[in-house]
Automatic annotation (TrEMBL), chains A, B:
Coiled coil: none annotated. The natural substrate for this enzyme may be peptidyl-tRNAs which drop off the ribosome during protein synthesis. Transmembrane segments: none annotated. PANTHER family: PEPTIDYL-TRNA HYDROLASE 2 (PTHR12649), PEPTIDYL-TRNA HYDROLASE 2, MITOCHONDRIAL (PTHR12649:SF11). This is Peptidyl-tRNA hydrolase. Keywords: Hydrolase. It catalyses: an N-acyl-L-alpha-aminoacyl-tRNA + H2O = an N-acyl-L-amino acid + a tRNA + H(+). Belongs to the PTH2 family.
Length: 112, 112
């Protein structure tokens, strides 16, 4: 079991901003995951990887792929209080789900 | 309502590592929070701030302060698969809770 969180590299997020957006995505997708999968993932230490996306269109393509694979996922938009324009897409979380199901969506991406 | 996540600056975490540890802390403290506070926080957009701690001792002091204030919190140790030695303390999440309660614990820290 793992969760992949994909964040944009093209909008100049600072380290703290990036971390907050990744956390937001992680929790949002987790809440859309069924209780059994949640428990399995937590029992295995909440394995997470943070990956790079080149821009908004790649985030949407990955979200669509997750939807078609039936993997829980969440696209995050920034509230726009700091740094970014309100509504800017920043990150996507995929899973938690079985490693191979997550990899079918994000397995080709580079580590952040 | 907000959640503060405090991460160490002294262990050379890369951006992706930092984001994963912050996400882990965020979810762990959230799970220790009562359902009413969870709902309030999510209704307000899951407000999060990511803050700096100078080292392990500061993380433990802040965790102790959160404990005494009765604010939900979670200290995260890295599983040690990459970058860090297994068991290294990386981050602390405080809240979600009312802003003033979180600020009594972390209000003096700098943004990451």
């Amino acid at each position: 079991m793992k969760q992949a969180i994909v964040a944009r590299t093209d909008i100049g997020m600072g380290q703290g901003k990036l971390a907050a957006q990744v956390a937001h995505a992680s929790l949002s997708a987790y809440e859309d995951t069924d209780p059994g999968a949640r428990t399995d993932w937590k029992g295995g230490g909440q394995k997470k990887v943070v990956l790079k996306a080149s821009g908004e269109s790649e985030i949407f393509e990955l979200a669509d792929r997750a939807e078609r694979e039936g993997v829980p996922h969440a696209v995050i938009r920034d509230a726009g209080h700091t740094q970014l324009e309100s509504g800017t897409v920043t990150a996507l979380a995929v899973g938690p789900a079985a490693d191979d199901r997550v990899d079918r969506v994000t397995g080709h991406l580079s580590l952040f």
